[in-house]
């Protein structure tokens, strides 16, 4: 019965890493492949949702018939999200957004000189939290990549960011998660939790979208 819940719903998904430029030739980024976010976009589309995928730089083809917006920096992702989420029903923050950007990007390449180089970083906006705190916030699902205290940290983020659900994965295990074909997730919401065992990311995405459909129905009928 949860299969029909997402038909016609508008779902925005962020995916991949962000790239924070340091100078015209260098940037700071992370190992996110974007596979989980892209798999979620496909799974949501299979359930009849109208999906907008907002993606950082990845080596994946844009999924067929899914509106895909390519961005590079966290700030650009934030802007793209804010422009598209005012009328979405569900927001899924799957991107590995850089927490910080360099305070002052130089227009010229930084030259080697001293034995030390100091860069000052400032905090990026938290896209997911900003969406979840909107007056007319959509149903929100966030991710938490952790190397320890998975449950405690995930529940902290669920509360602090004001999310409906959070899916946590253990990134200390290199056989799953970042840059791998497989993943395993522990999903938490205010009144419950569910473990999704290690599986191919596309299969896991389908299981997670069904869980989203279920929670979305129950939360919107509360
Ligand atoms: O706090 P932390 O970065 O671990 O939270 C991870 C979750 O928050 C992910 O869902 C990620 O997409 C989202 N996030 C975001 N904007 C940021 C940082 C994280 O949307 N600047």
Keywords:
alpha/beta, Rossmann fold, two-stranded antiparallel sheet, binds cytidine-5'-monophosphate, metal ion binding
Structure description:
It is globular and about 65 Å long. 27% of the residues lie in helices and 29% in strands. The protein has one domain (10-108, 117-220): 3-Layer(aba) Sandwich (Rossmann fold). The protein is an alpha/beta fold and 222 residues long. The chain has helices at residues 35-46, 74-84, 127-132, 150-160, 201-220, and strands at residues 10-15, 20-23, 26-28, 50-55, 67-70, 90-93, 100-102, 121-123, 139-146, 165-170, 182-189, 192-200. The model has no long low-confidence stretch (mean pLDDT 94). The longest helix is centred in the last third of the chain and has 20 residues, at 201-220. It has 5 helices and 12 strands. Helix 1 (35-46) packs across helix 5. The strands form 3 sheets. Strands 5-4-1-6-9-10-11-12 form an 8-stranded mixed β-sheet, with helices on both faces. It starts with 9 loop residues before the first strand and ends with a helix. Residues 14, 74, 93-95, 97, 99, 124, 126-128, 142-144, 157 line the site of cytidine-5'-monophosphate (C5P). Its cofactor is Mg(2+); FMN. Residues 11-222 are annotated as: Phosphopantothenate--cysteine ligase. CTP binds at residues 93-95, 99, 109, 125-128, 143, 157, 161. Pathway: Cofactor biosynthesis; coenzyme A biosynthesis; CoA from (R)-pantothenate: step 3/5; Cofactor biosynthesis; coenzyme A biosynthesis; CoA from (R)-pantothenate: step 2/5. In the C-terminal section; belongs to the PPC synthetase family. In the N-terminal section; belongs to the HFCD (homo-oligomeric flavin containing Cys decarboxylase) superfamily.
